[in-house]
């Protein structure tokens, strides 16, 4: 058994968390859902801060809860990162990191060193928390959680308290965690953008239940989910930089089923990238577009159509080879062009963001 398996039924009057999930043993699983959907309650059950009767939890082969076993929180080798990193003001950064380790049996000098390196805080070790920026404090908070050499890292909206600039500053470090940590990371977020940048897997919670669960793009490309992302509906496509056209400052991203030209961000050929393609930036045509300023036209087939939040709009799911994109179009366009499931169409992608 190599993954994280969690089965809990737990709640209060008016709310029940009712989940039975298997999450991968490494990589970032994002827990996404509206306020009150049970994301924090699920993390707290995993941490042992809530005790769901008849619950079952095993983390990478080790049982932390079942009918007979209950490992108390302080014996669970886990890191928990909250919105606000509550550091001890009288201790230096190093003192704060060491304090976390002393309380755990699993912390090791190697884990501490790796955490300091991963979060890029080596130059801050002697500082007191009062002399750190919000972003630096968050990085120290994450390093402290990692220094105990956890078997799972739980992160509850670690960026929520930061402004946009600080978020941008810290995201590269979170991406490194995603690439370099060999443990499962459960990451609660309200932000579809953050989820698209960081997650490999996505769990969508709705009213305490799992509305969808699976590899990131399988879930993002579902257009039938009750939870709607509004302007943020879209997919994340993994690919590699296939070529650079220096004369036009463009980079070609190759993915399963096609290629797209995008603005060149100086990334080298063969670099793996993730593209975020929002449904509002994707239009459909029934004939191959000519004389269009939109350079990325891909041939695909409509495989589902669903209503959008707005009564005048619909979402169409299109398979471009093995890659799914979503287009948001008006009902009138759908009707006029005769777009229906099974129709071959041209997909025009006006813009896409490269998420390294
Ligand atoms: N100890 C508690 N006693 C009673 N109700 C609680 C308790 N903890 C949470 N709740 C309720 O359970 C529901 C789920 O809360 P939870 O914090 O898990 O949601 P969430 O998805 O993390 O929300 P948010 O995104 O706002 O943080 C909410 O309705 C909340 O008010």
From TrEMBL:
This is Molybdenum ABC transporter ATP-binding protein. Keywords: ATP-binding, Cell inner membrane, Cell membrane, Membrane, Molybdenum, Nucleotide-binding, Translocase, Transport. GO terms for cellular component: membrane. PANTHER family: ABC TRANSPORTER I FAMILY MEMBER 10, MOLYBDENUM IMPORT ATP-BINDING PROTEIN MODC 2. It comes from the Bacteria. One of its GO terms (molecular function) is ABC-type transporter activity. PROSITE patterns: ABC_TRANSPORTER_1 (PS00211), ABC_TRANSPORTER_2 (PS50893), MOP (PS51866). Residues 1-232 form the ABC transporter domain. InterPro entries: AAA+_ATPase (IPR003593), ABC_transporter-like_ATP-bd (IPR003439), ABC_transporter-like_CS (IPR017871), Mo/tungstate-bd_C_term_dom (IPR008995), ModC_ABC_ATP-bd (IPR011868), Molybdenum_import_ModC (IPR050334), Mop_domain (IPR004606), P-loop_NTPase (IPR027417). Pfam families: ABC_tran, TOBE. Residues 291-356 form the Mop domain.
